């Protein structure tokens, strides 16, 4: 695409050797969602490509984002009387999100039953999920409103969500195993139920204190505490265990921390801009600022996913951060101290508009380019299932072909470990 090639020979050769290996121990996922998804996928025609299910689910989250933004762009609706967001918007958003969650759960099962599992499916799935990581929290911000949950606190909540999404991929980069976090299933259920309750009882319901504490503060603390208790320590232990038992990639310390550099740089640059903005950019354009940060995060995350799936070296820097550096520099410069005219509100706003547009175009181009190159290399189509004899198609309950040839019940990191509860870990491909 316009002469840019994103995948080199090492990437493509790594994808050829790639085998999906994950562990899913979430109680909600194992005992509720997998049985449900196993039933739902049977109603899905076999001619539908798994990536089409994935992309449809992602589009539903995008529809929710724009629909809610239309009625409450600046997160001020929650404090207005009457609240300008119609009840049907919340109901539709709840349905869309749960359907998106379901499609995300059955796309891997659809790939299994049609024999079309492959690295493109997993990359496509996780890549789109990384973009949804910024869209879904924004639904909750609209419910609570900027009066009770100021945009700067929304921003740090968003960073927490990014970190919780990113660290499992760092974990896989180091261990070779995707340990699916428990939080994902509970978050999707929680947000869907919250949206539905809002549609039934109204957004005013979330202004009622619980034992003197507002629901928005409970939401905020729950996200932080759950990350510290249920996510980060487990990831650290899994990485430590892989080094201790020599079951992981055994990367050196300098190599192990490479994926953290671009993410840390993104967090630092965006935070400096938020705290030192000449015009309070986070209060002026909170929604667009989150989108800009989320787009950059998704690009960084996608590049890490490519590296860990192809078993290549992770990027130490992301080129799109150069644009962020330049814009943030001009927006935090102490103009009056330097004897220069102060940066106007409109100029800073237009700088954010331009940056968001540039990084969005660049990220979409990157994603489309990677998918195109993989399709060309593997001679497949992203949204069209290649034909195969019916006898070769699998039930969603059957193990993946690679699991039949690499069964090792003694190694907790083997692909068989993902099926130890009776359900293959096939929510991704």
Task: Please tell me about this protein's structure.
By secondary structure, this protein is mainly alpha-helical. The chain is 64% helix and 1% strand. The chain contains 15 helices and two strands. The protein has a two-stranded parallel sheet. Helix 3 runs parallel beside helix 5, helix 5 packs across helix 7 and helix 10 packs parallel to helix 13. The radius of gyration is 22 Å and the shape is globular. The relative contact order is 0.17.
Short note summarizing the structure:
With 429 residues, the protein is mainly α.
What keywords describe this structure?
mainly alpha; 2 strands; two-stranded parallel ribbon; 15 helices; about 425 residues; globular
């Amino acid at each position: 695409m316009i002469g840019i090639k994103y995948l080199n020979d090492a990437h493509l050769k790594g994808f050829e050797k790639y085998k999906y290996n994950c562990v899913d121990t979430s109680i909600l996922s194992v005992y509720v969602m997998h049985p449900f998804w196993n039933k739902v996928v049977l109603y899905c025609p076999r001619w539908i490509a798994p990536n089409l299910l994935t992309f449809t689910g992602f589009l539903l989250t995008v529809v929710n984002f724009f629909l809610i933004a239309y009625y409450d762009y600046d997160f001020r609706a929650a404090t207005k009387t009457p609240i300008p967001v119609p009840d049907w918007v919340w109901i539709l958003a709840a349905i869309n999100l749960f359907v998106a969650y379901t499609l995300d759960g059955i796309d891997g099962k659809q790939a299994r039953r049609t024999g079309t599992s492959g690295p493109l499916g997993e990359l496509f799935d996780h890549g789109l999920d990384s973009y949804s990581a910024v869209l879904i929290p924004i639904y909750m911000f609209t419910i609570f409103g900027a009066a009770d949950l100021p945009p700067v606190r929304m921003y740090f909540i968003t960073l927490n969500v990014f970190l919780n999404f990113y660290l499992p991929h760092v974990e896989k980069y180091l261990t070779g195993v995707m340990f699916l976090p428990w939080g994902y299933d509970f978050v999707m259920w929680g947000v869907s139920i919250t949206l539905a309750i809002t549609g039934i009882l109204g957004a005013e319901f979330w202004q009622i204190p619980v034992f003197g504490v507002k629901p928005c503060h409970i939401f905020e603390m729950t996200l932080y505490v759950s990350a510290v208790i249920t996510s980060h320590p487990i990831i650290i232990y899994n990485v430590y265990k892989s080094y201790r038992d020599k079951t992981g990639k055994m990367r050196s310390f300098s190599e192990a921390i490479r994926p953290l550099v671009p993410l840390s740089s993104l967090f630092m640059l965006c935070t400096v801009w938020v705290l030192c903005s000449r015009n309070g950019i986070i209060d002026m354009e909170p929604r667009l600022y989150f989108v800009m940060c989320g787009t950059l995060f998704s690009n960084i995350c996608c590049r890490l996913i490519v590296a860990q799936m192809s078993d290549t070296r992770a990027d130490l820097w992301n080129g799109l951060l150069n644009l962020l550096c330049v814009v943030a520099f001009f927006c935090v410069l102490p103009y009056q101290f330097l004897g220069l005219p102060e940066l106007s509100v409109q100029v800073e706003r237009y700088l954010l508009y331009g940056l968001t547009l540039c990084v969005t175009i660049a990220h979409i181009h990157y994603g489309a380019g990677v998918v195109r190159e993989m399709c060309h290399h593997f001679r497949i189509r992203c949204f069209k299932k290649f034909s195969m004899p019916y006898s070769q198609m699998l039930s969603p309950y059957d193990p993946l072909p690679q699991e039949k040839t690499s069964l090792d019940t003694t190694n907790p990191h083997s692909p068989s470990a993902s099926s130890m509860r009776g359900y293959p870990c096939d929510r991704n491909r």
